[in-house]
Design brief:
The chain has two domains: about 1-40; about 50-205, Ferritin, core subunit, four-helix bundle (Ferritin, Up-down Bundle). Helices cover about 80% and strands about 0% of the residues. The protein has seven helices and no strands. Helix 3 runs antiparallel to helix 4, helix 5 (about 120-130) packs antiparallel against helix 6 and helix 6 packs antiparallel against helix 7.
Length: about 200
């Protein structure tokens, strides 16, 4: 056998082995690690309204905790004293709201555990991006109010849903605590609307 034929034979043999090994590997069903099996089991299907309530409660718990970290940046960026004060006041309220959400978990009989709120994460990312824009003070304040109200509207909608579900599930304490949070969110939204009236006029100049 010539050298060239010998080399071709070896290459063909390697190729054949690779194809066979790949086919065998694809046919083998490897066992799932215990840690992944546990995580998969924890992500069980929601079959009752109570399951949906717990899931949504985890979501708003995450949302409020994310806001506690994000709001100081917005307060610092604001140039209007009234807007800065509004952000600082709501930061204090949000810290208390986190505690109320934790108490609401008691009615579920399950641990207070946050599940990353992707919606709030997206709103905060947008806010951080907008705060980097080169805008005059009056316009930046108007932008900050708009961003804050997006957050408020999301929270109001979420708390409204949770309060309705809590009422249907007989979660008396949860409804009370979550209702208090919703009331504060609605008042904050109205306060921001009042501020925006003046700030928007200044931004139009």
């Amino acid at each position: 056998m010539s050298f060239s034929r010998s080399t071709r034979f070896i290459d063909d043999w390697h190729t054949a082995c690779y194809v066979v090994l790949k086919a065998v590997a694809g046919a083998i069903s490897y066992p799932i690690p215990a840690e992944k099996r546990k995580k998969k089991n924890e992500m069980s299907k929601m079959t009752t309204l109570a399951d949906a309530f717990y899931n949504e409660l985890q979501d708003i718990y995450s949302a409020e905790k994310q806001l506690v970290k994000a709001m100081p940046k917005m307060a610092k960026k604001a140039t209007c004293e009234k807007l800065t004060a509004a952000f600082e006041k709501h930061l204090e309220q949000t810290t208390i709201q986190v505690g109320r959400v934790e108490k609401a978990f008691e009615d579920t009989g399950k641990p207070a555990k946050a599940k990353t709120c992707e919606a709030m994460k997206g709103l905060i990312t947008e806010a951080e991006s907008m705060m980097e824009e080169d805008a005059v003070p009056e316009v930046m304040d108007a932008i900050l109010i708009g961003l804050a109200q997006k957050v408020e509207h999301y929270e109001i909608a979420t708390y409204g849903t949770l309060c309705t579900w809590a009422d249907q599930l007989g979660y008396t304490n949860a409804k009370k605590y979550l209702g208090q949070n919703m009331d504060e969110e609605e008042k904050t939204d109205k306060a921001l609307t009042a501020l925006s009236t003046a700030k928007n006029k200044a931004a139009m100049a």
